[in-house]
Amino acid sequence: MEWRKCYLDVILVPLGFLTSIGYHFWLWHKVRTQPHTTIIGINASGRGNWVNGMMKIFITGWWLCPELYLRRPFDSFSTSRLDSLLEEKANQGVQIYVLLYKEVSLALKINSLYSMRILLKIHENVRVLHYPDHFAARVLQI
């Protein structure tokens, strides 16, 4: 570990990638080396981790289906649908934030507007950001 600290101090700090106090680029907080994350849908224990107490849930992706079943077989685990789990957590007072990719409908048919509408109907604690607005931000140049 001594060589790693030396490498950081000698190479990365002078280049501006790190500062000597451990901040990365323009961040106002230190880089976390062991952040706590919960990934759901990988195995049966993932749902147990998610359903337990939380204060906020952040979901992002370029495609999200609210009717997604997280466990199989579907008929045995009807409560494992993503929208029903989000509704359950929202009713418990958890704030849910979803960032969806706003596609150009001429090029990509992932129907993110449908997903946004379904998610917003779940509960008032669910907030959805549809980003980017290609035409207003001049991201798409035709």
UniProtKB/TrEMBL annotation:
InterPro entries: DUF599. Keywords: Hydrolase, Membrane, Transmembrane, Transmembrane helix. It is an enzyme of class 3 (hydrolase). GO terms for molecular function: phospholipase D activity. The chain crosses the membrane at residues 7-28. Its EC number is 3.1.4.4. This is Phospholipase D p1. It comes from Glycine soja (Wild soybean).
